[in-house]
Amino acid sequence: MAKRFSTIRYAEAMSQYIPYGKQDINQADIDAVIEVLRSDWITQGPAIEKFEKIVAEYCGVKYAVAVSSATAALHIACLASGLGIGDILWTSPNTFVASANCGLYCGAKVDFVDIDTNTYNLSIDELEHKLVRAEQEGCLPKVLVPVHFAGQCCEMERIAALSHQYDFKVIEDASHAIGGKYLGKSIGNCEFSDITVLSFHPVKIITTGEGGMLLTNQDDLYQKLIRLRSHGITRTSDLMQEESHGSWYYQQLELGFNYRITDIQAALGASQMQRLDEFVERRNFLAQRYHQLLQDLPITLPWQHPDTESSWHLYVIRLKLEKINKTHRQVFEGLRQTGIGVNLHYIPVHTQPYYQQLGFKAGNFPEAERYYQEAISIPIYYGLTEPAQDQVVTLLKQTILCN
Ligand SMILES: *Cc1c(COP(=O)(O)O)cnc(C)c1O
């Protein structure tokens, strides 16, 4: 780990280094943060509501709740959905560990649905088969967390139909996907889900440093999420279980957390939202350009479902190893050595040592495992210039084709 880090630092020092993802902060972002720093409220102030309103309006959803990270958002989304001990959560094995860990935080069991060969999202056919079996065995999930991998939306219409048939809740992990579309409408509108979760980590589409958000159209979920974000406390007298003692009074109704975001971060987020469409447009342009420039290489390019418009958080190629004289690892590390900060999304969650302790084994989800043997995320971000992208293409060709 330390060694890999120092390799990246070395390449970075060589000034050739091109990361796989990077935030873009402009003067307006900096000014917005400074304005909050000079104001009376640096947390629990008006910048948070303003940020929530901007995102809710953009996504076409009724309610938004900003929190300290998408991981925190996934945790309270599960709690608000009633997930607890004895319940089951299903998600994709091809995701960041947080999409699964949120179920374990609640004392629930976690299981996975293998991925689709083309989209790398969880496979709806697999989901259907697994639901039929689970119903027979009496172990249906209470919550499904579909992950919009790389910014491409899952087939939400089919997921929603299955959620009605089998009575489970749907929490979309849209950490990659703000600015993307499904059936012509913004991801995050919750038309086919109960809650959508966003991440504002610096590698994602817009950033607040650390930060996340929950989106929902359901009033009762919204009230619960607001409380869970801040210790389970309410100051609304209508919700109190005893008469108010006075204007200082608050009540803790359940066991919540401090998962609040600061006004400083929210101001950055609101400012970043002004450029969201520009960010996604640029990513889309770079993706189309990669499609052109890479089409003759022995690799599989990212396939897009016709119902979706990706936000292009990631550009993932898959090596056709039978046509390449190198191993996956050799290509990956060769690229790192040339200063291209490639990455791998994702190590299948069920193969992590912690999940193996829970009983999962290599071989459980073969499609996700096969994908992991071949996948490489190559650089894509707003500030990637065309000459830099050309350099990525040149070095990729050399690394794959030359010995
Ligand atoms: C980044 C990410 C998360 C976690 O986001 P944080 O804001 O860093 O907590 C969860 N799920 C997916 C799919 C992610 O990419």
Number of separate domains: 2
Main sheet: strands, sense, barrel: 7 strands, mixed
CATH topology of the largest domain: Aspartate Aminotransferase, domain 2
The CATH class of the largest domain is identified as Alpha Beta
Q: Hey, roughly how much beta strand do the residues contain?
A: 5-15%
Radius of gyration: 22 Å
Walk across the major sheet and give the strand order: 2-10-9-6-5-3-4
Which stretches are poorly predicted, pLDDT < 50 over at least 5 residues?
none
Number of separate helices = 14
Helix percentage range: 40-55%
Distinct compounds present: pyridoxal-5'-phosphate
Question: Which word captures the global form?
Answer: globular
Based on secondary structure, the structural category is: alpha/beta
Average pLDDT works out at: 96
How many β-strands, per DSSP? 17
